[in-house]
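Researcher: Go.
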Amino acid sequence: MEKYDVFVFGTGTAGKLVATSCKEAGMSVAIIDNREYGGTCSQRGCDPKKLILASIEAFEFAQNMKGDGIAGETQLDWKAAINYAKRYTENVPDRTKNLLQEKGITCLHGEAKFIDSNTVVLDNEKIQAKHFIIATGMQPLPLGIPGDEFMLTSGDFFTLNKVPEKVVFVGAGYIGMEFGQMLARAGSKVTMIEKGNQVLGPFEEYTASFIEQASEKLEIKIIKNAQASSVEKIDNRFIVNYAMKNGMHQITTDCVFNTAGRVPSIKALDLEKANVVTDKGGVVVNECLQSTTQSHIYACGDVSSKNLPLTPLSGIEASIVAKNLVGQKTELDIPAIPSTVFTIPQCASIGLTEKQAFKKDLKYHVIQKDSSDWFNNKRINASFYGYKVIIDDTTGKILGAHIAGPEASEQINMFAIAMKAQMTFKDLRKTIFNYPSWGNDLRSM
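Model: Structure:
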């Protein structure tokens, strides 16, 4: 029977960091993945998405500036954009595995399952460890409807070498909206089916509305307050049936994506046999990211009940786990973390939404504006730009900031710094920024 000091499930951002940190501290370490090494973000998520988006953004920029310095026909080559992303991702598994092996980490592949709190089994071979780290990330939420086996998931998006004539997304969250806009700009007729009453549900309603308007301008059809009930396949096409208050409806499409959300990827681990408590957020952990029922088992990244599905937080959690494993007791202390939907325009958020501030019974005031006519937006002939800032009445500090605009992802970083530094919104606005930069717009907010 093999025995290790540390056994890590998952080779994404969190798993790699814990494994390498522990190995460098002199521990014996094994790591395992049931898919290609490297995790979701680098192969089926953030990175390839942004690579494809680079082509989409360039195309959008050229289209907007046509007649104002750009002439001639501009075309988007979808297959070339997909291949551009593939060139980046194709070496990730080998590169990741080689780096781990070079450090002396044992690299395994397959589906290891717990048989008790100290032992897992892989291909009928038992493996024991002093500490187990669960960093298996998330997977698409199973819809459990008839015909859901016909639905594609986010990973399949990166294999679309041909632009479908018609495509349906079940779920108008950040994945659905990002992919939907990309395909709409590439020529697809896109329909979004959303069970809630707004797109980008967790985001501030005011800024999310700009993304909805921008999507409708692309002729994306957004059906809200609708529940997908089944998918049928007829020849090479699909019928998506969905329910609304006024009855049942259906739509025919060339492909249908399940973008209804993601859930912790822990079901296959048989955690109940290790007496590890889980909830809908993942493995229930304490402030040191230890299982509340098994202190030698940790969870970090997207499977931790204290996590948000954001890559920067996965890295922070992994470093906390690594420190605890080498005897440096460290507790989770996370500042406000910015999040961005990479649509066009982008939708970025940090801190509380107004609804959340209201539910907390906080005393606050709101500054919001449709700033679509501001210089920076007009300079590039963009259509939508707006913001909403929630400010504590007593302290003047920023409770939340929300931006929809071409460079919202960078602007929100400035709010992250201000909130981390406990600056007031007034102090932030007094800061001198380059003019005329997007950062300088904060002075006018």
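Model: The chain is about 30% helix and 25% strand.
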